[in-house]
Amino acid sequence: MLGDTEPERDCVHCLLVASRVGSNVLFERFYKLRGETTTDSERTTWRRAFHAASSPTLGSAVEEEPYVANHRSHTIVWTTLGGLVLFIAGSGIYDELSLAEILRSVVGLLKTTTKSKAPTEMLFQANLGKFCLTADELLYAGHVEMLDKDAISRHVKLKTAKEKA
């Protein structure tokens, strides 16, 4: 039944951006309960789960098409964009549909921050600081703050809705 899940499990657990070739991790953010930290072992487990989810179809993956996999009781959604692979994992109310919507917003934010429709690894790294700010506006403590890329861009620039972005 709806609402029977544990509240601490209703969250996004991880957002990760990797290079498409070589699978180098370029950005990762883990979301845990307040005061908890993610161990190296947990990070490795997530990375392996993401690799296992994407490796069979990565070569033939369609740009910006969401792909879904499961890892234990968590849902993984991943997609490709230019030279990047984006992963997000969640559980509870963050099912494949909501994770795909969040990932769609991440794709839009990546295009905006890199000013490219197909960002490369080098272009992403050049704009990493700006992407970190936008990712923090999108997700806070494993929960969605806002999905509108224009609103997020205004927040990052510290402008109100009345001011031009």
Automatic annotation (TrEMBL):
Highest taxon above the source species: Eukaryota
Q: Does the keyword Acyltransferase apply?
A: no
Q: How does it sit in the membrane?
A: Peripheral membrane protein
InterPro entries (alphabetical): Coatomer_zeta (IPR039652), Longin-like_dom_sf (IPR011012)
Chief localization class?
cytoplasm
A GO CC term attached to the entry: COPI vesicle coat
User: Which residue spans adopt a coiled-coil conformation according to this UniProt entry?
Assistant: none
Q: Which UniProt keywords apply?
A: Cytoplasm, Cytoplasmic vesicle, ER-Golgi transport, Golgi apparatus, Membrane, Protein transport, Transport
Describe the family membership recorded for this protein in Swiss-Prot or TrEMBL.
Answer: Belongs to the adaptor complexes small subunit family.
The record ties this protein, via PANTHER family, to: TSET COMPLEX MEMBER TSTD, ZETA-COAT PROTEIN
Subunit details: Oligomeric complex that consists of at least the alpha, beta, beta', gamma, delta, epsilon and zeta subunits.
- Protein purpose: The zeta subunit may be involved in regulating the coat assembly and, hence, the rate of biosynthetic protein transport due to its association-dissociation properties with the coatomer complex.
Q: What is this protein called?
A: Coatomer subunit zeta
